[in-house]
Amino acid sequence: MKPLWTGAIGFGLVNIPVKLFSATESSNLDLDMLDKKDHSHIRFMRVNEKTGKEVKWENIVKGFMINDKYVLLDDKDFEKANAVKTKLIEISDFVNADEINSAYYETPYYLQPDKSGSRPYALLREALIKTKKVGIASFVMRNRENLAILRAQDDVIILNRIRFAEEIRPTAELELPKKSTIKAAELKMAITLINQLSGAFNIEKYKDTYSAQLMKFIKAKAKGKAVPAPHMKVVHSKTQDLMEQLKASLDSKKKKAS
To answer: Which tens digits make up the pLDDT trace of 202-230?
Structure first.
């Protein structure tokens, strides 16, 4: 597995050399884009807007326009802007994980220490586990500053990119119901239903079933089989009464358990 970034974790005056690896992989089917007429592959080309000719990757540069003129930038220029942030994941604070709104979470990565950083890496990992804290850090990857949290899980330190506050839209423009619209009896029954459905979280329990179902459909279609479109079943459609719907939900759960 190839690292996406190499540098170090800055933990006080301790620097821990690390490599950053992707922690995720897609479970989606790899579908090709085709021309409807003859099923030829669709290619995405980098084209010069003046000549209309394709440009090779090695001939593409990045630039920023100032006063109608481009200032060209290469990889070294991005490092010169802030050499520390391009090579250091600097921990600035430690907080409780449950203080971070889930809306801020983005992409997870694994951090692996270089041999010279094994001992301080293990020290930080165990300290995070003991204190039940996560570290707030910032670093630059792919020419962009990232905010992140560092948390320990089993033997690994996971870096989770999180969004900046200005990237989260305010809810003021949404039309949301007031708390006063809920009756006490309805709330009590809804809490009962939540408690009845509650249990320990186990990620292995949840599977990407849609990809498997889509593959099944593709194979059936390849054999020329006609697959009827399923009709979505609307639960509790007989009544619009919220209390009746909640009672039916509780009764349904009891029947499954028995």
So the answer is: 878 777 777 887 888 888 878 888 777 77
Q: What pTM value is reported for the model?
A: 0.72
Q: Does residue 162 share a domain with residue 191?
A: no
Summarize pLDDT for 22-48 with one digit per residue, the tens: 999 888 888 899 999 999 999 888 999
Domain match, 18 and 109 both:
yes
Establish if 205 belongs to a structural domain.
Answer: no
Q: Is residue 226 part of a domain?
A: no
Note down the domain range covering 63.
Answer: 5-26+59-167
pLDDT at 16 exceeding the cut of 50: yes
- 191-194 contacts at long range (C-beta below 8 A, 24 or more positions apart): 192/250, 193/246, 193/249, 193/250, 193/253
Distances (CA, A) of 152 to 9, 131, 160, 203, 222: 14, 10, 11, 17, 46
Are residue 183 and residue 106 in the same domain, yes or no? no
pLDDT at res. 237? 46
Give the long-range contacts of residues 147-152, CB within 8 A, separation 24 or more: 148/89, 149/97, 149/100, 150/9, 150/89, 150/91, 150/111, 150/124, 151/97, 152/124, 152/125, 152/126, 152/128
Domain count, the chain: 2
8 Å CB contact between 141 and 90: no
